[in-house]
Amino acid sequence: MNSLLEEIKSYKDQFKQKAPAEKQRLMAQATQELKDSGIASGLTVGDQAPSFELPHVDGTAVYLKTLLENGPVIVTFYRGGWCPYCNLELRAYQRELATIQEKGATLVAISPETPDYSLSTKEKNELDFYVLSDVDNIVARQFDLVFDMPDYLIDIYKASGLNVDAHNGNEDWQLPKPATFIIQSDGTISFSDVPADYTERVDPKTVIEKL
Prior knowledge:
Elements: H1 4-18, H2 21-37, E1 53-55, E2 61-63, H3 64-68, E3 73-77, H4 84-95, H5 97-102, E4 106-111, H6 115-125, E5 130-133, H7 138-142, E6 146-148, H8 151-159, H9 164-168, E7 174-176, E8 179-183, E9 189-193, H10 204-210
Helix pairs in contact: 1-4
């Protein structure tokens, strides 16, 4: 079984071969602009995690405070089930879920998608951990992860038939950076990974080592 980083490299190589050069250029430009802006840099080690309540795909409310009573919580923010890199990452976490649970930790994945779309993401990737809907990016904003997509990138997505606004149930075309945190039982963040480049992800094995 390939590692997440190997799977991402393979997908990126395919994208470079198949995608039109102008599309690649503009997507790279958007990533660079986000890096240069310095916005949405995310909470960091030592910060207190915001206490949140979000709906799981089965309609139940999930409280961070309750999860932390059982041990540390890994929280991974993803852009949506439409994002191939996010799906690779979620499936990689599923492969490591038993190890995470053996270490006494809970895994939670959060996106701005509506519960219906979150459910389809969970089913498509056969995920056995919490998949939560953060509609309007309310919690992602508290973790300092949210940015506005530039108009030219929105045009590219729409031309590809990708309507993020429909997935998110609003018109704002805002996304969280993909980010992963380990939150200890007292609510302190002990690990933080917030890449500006959405194609970069931390390997779940690395996160487990940090537990």
